[in-house]
Amino acid sequence: MYTTDLSGKDKKKSEPTPLKQEDPKLLAAFEARVANDEFIEPKDWMPEAYRRTLVRQISQHAHSEIVGMLPEGNWITRAPSLRRKAILLAKVQDEGGHGLYLYAAAETLGTSRAEMIEALHSGKAKYSTIFNYPTLTWADIGAIGWLVDGAAIMNQVPLQRTSFGPYARAMVRVCKEESFHQRQGYEIMMALAGGSREQKRMAQDALARWWWPSLMMFGPPDDKSPNTEQSIRWRIKRETNDELRQKFVDVSVPQAEAIGLSIPDKKLKWNEARGHYDYGEIDWEEFYAVVRGEGSVAKERMQARVKAWEDGAWVRDAALVHAAKRTAAKIAAE
Ligand SMILES: [Fe+2]
Ligand SMILES: [Fe+2]
Question: What is the value of pTM for the model shown?
Answer without folding.
Answer: 0.88
